[in-house]
């Protein structure tokens, strides 16, 4: 497996622990709504909700260890998640300040501050990756009959606990160096202020086609380089009291996404509809309306972005640039809102009573401006360069299908759709791994040349991305995980 494909595996596994953030956002958001002044001090129900949401945020490192181990395991088994938990507990206990002091015969005051921060998402990800690899390697091992009870999956947590002893020994010397480098990087980005937020926004969008934006997000949104923007924002008053959050600053790596996802991309959708050929207006309208609705309410933008990402890369580069501008403006003006899932209306409403959400309503004003900016610039570029966005395809671009291929459009349910996607990718024999994120099937195959892009699009796929000889991603929309689950059962 190439390094890019491996990084993508890590990136998609990060979505497992991130998926619990909406629960924290809802609990905290409702708590702040009930008691916007005391943040739990004046209302027992608000305190209950805020404490419950805080429990998730405070334990994100261990959730990363468990989630990444589970997400990268070959069969998504609970034994892999348990191994991640075991590994994380061993590492963080052995490398705590007190343990390091004892192991190195060093006074506690002289122990590197790096070990006071050993309980963080970076270590959680590292432990999760190692635990998953050990699970994939040893979960089928059979021991002698006398030790048969510990064979297979039961063996993995035991192996992980011993391997973590060696990992801890290595980290005893390496972790301070890594920590100092991460802190230096985090401080550098922080010192760039609004410019740093803009640069991040640009590359966040630019990495989506290859699925590496999740890895980039972890640096800014979580405690990988000391930024930890989402947990610190969701922590609200507690984060402020603990000195982890600054009003007007914390949340700047999130706020600028709201104008783009809620307003900018729907403006782009309207431009693509207005520039579509008259004969294709109805079809284009249905696609664009559904995608724009998802972007506005939930912040899920992939269905809309993939509709023009590959057919009009100039537009996608423009989109990435405008995203960077939006994050820069929001950070400069200190118009702040945050999210637990994505930058849609639901998260904006939930975060509006958070004490760290300042002038959040101005993001709506900024968003209206970006709606017109996207509409005007997208429409101009599409017409000027005659880009083949949805509804503007040449007549000759339509795929000529055989009767067998035409029948692919009659997907009645997820089960039949899964069967047809297996056929699209070259059959069961060509598949080596099946996974999914929110909107994409992420597949490993023996030969990507056997994957039929035309048949995939006949099934309703928005895009097919071939990553070398063995990697394929198919953008199928919100049903991606259900389709992937059914494909696994069939294979």
Question: What can you tell me about this protein's structure?
Answer:
The protein starts with a helix and ends with a helix. Residues 396-411 have low confidence and may be disordered. The protein is built from 23 helices and 4 strands. The protein has 3 domains: 3-192, no CATH class; 193-396, no CATH class; 403-490, Glucose permease domain IIB (Gyrase A, domain 2, 2-Layer Sandwich), CATH 3.30.1360.60. Helix content is 60%, strand content 4%. Strands 1-2-4-3 form a 4-stranded antiparallel beta sheet, with helices on both faces. The chain has 491 residues and is mostly helical. Helix 1 (3-13) packs across helix 5, helix 6 (78-94) packs across helix 8 (121-138) and helix 10 runs antiparallel to helix 11.
